[in-house]
Amino acid sequence: MQTVLADEVVDLVVLDLITLARRLRDQSAIPSVMLTGRREEADRVMGLELGADDYLTKPFSPRELVARIRAVLRRRRHEVPQGRPEGIGAYRFDGWELNLNTRRLRNRDGQAVPLSNGQFSLLVAFLGAPNRILSRDQLLDMSRLHSDDVYNRSVETQVLRLRRKLDSDSAGPRYICTERGAGYMFGVPVETIY
Fold first, then answer.
1. What is the pLDDT of residues 26-54, one digit of tens each?
2. Which domains does the chain show, CATH number per domain?
3. Whole-model pTM?
4. Residue 136 — φ and ψ, nearest 5°?
5. For residue 30, how far is the Cα from the chain centroid?
6. Helix/strand/coil (H/E/C) assignment for every residue in the chain
7. How far apart are CA 11 and CA 120, in angstroms?
8. 121 CB-near residues (< 8 Å, 6+ apart)
9. What angle do CA 104, 162, 80 make, to 5 degrees?
10. How many CB atoms lie within 10 A of CB 177?
């Protein structure tokens, strides 16, 4: 679970174990729904106190579970500005092109460069604020990476992986520059295509 959370964008987690709910809440701001066989009031209260955003007991109705998931996501959607910027379909920088509709990155030769969900979201955040220093917290919020202290390291990991895909010279990154003590900056001009 931790590997997936570090590498991918996860909108919500459905859990059965209270111990996992506690660990998830300690390490992440990802919303969670407890789906468990524990029916006692004390168990429900404990699950919610440990950070679950909702609690549902087994047996359950799949329709009710989907409705509860949608309600949690609806509440969370308004908390952080994230994802694709409105009215923008693609960015171009230094011969590269990122199409937001198809989620495809093409290099200067027109070849597709595969990106994980986390790398895509991080690149969108950088391209939306070129030549501007973005702190780790801003990148966490803007890219939908997990906003907590443990996953602060995931920003550095994602930046490193994204640099490897963009820069052939890892000794001197050209696109994503580290601003010591402040964060990161996308250091080349970016053009909005459509």
1. 766 678 898 888 888 888 888 888 878 89
2. 2-77 (3.40.50.2300), 90-192 (1.10.10.10)
3. 0.54
4. -60, -40
5. 9
6. CHHHHHHCCCCCEEECCHHHHHHHHHHCCCCEEEEECCCCHHHHHHHHHCCCCEEEECCCCHHHHHHHHHHHHHHHHCCCCCCCCCCCCEEEECCEEEECCCCEEECCCCCEECCCHHHHHHHHHHHCCCCCCECHHHHHHHHCCCCCCCCHHHHHHHHHHHHHHHCCCCCCCCCEEEECCCEEEECCCCEECC
7. 15
8. 9, 82, 83, 143, 144, 145
9. 80
10. 16
pLDDT at 147: 41
Tokens found for residue 158:
């994602």
pLDDT of residue 98: 93
Name the nearest CA neighbour of 89 among 159, 191, 166, 11.
Answer: 191
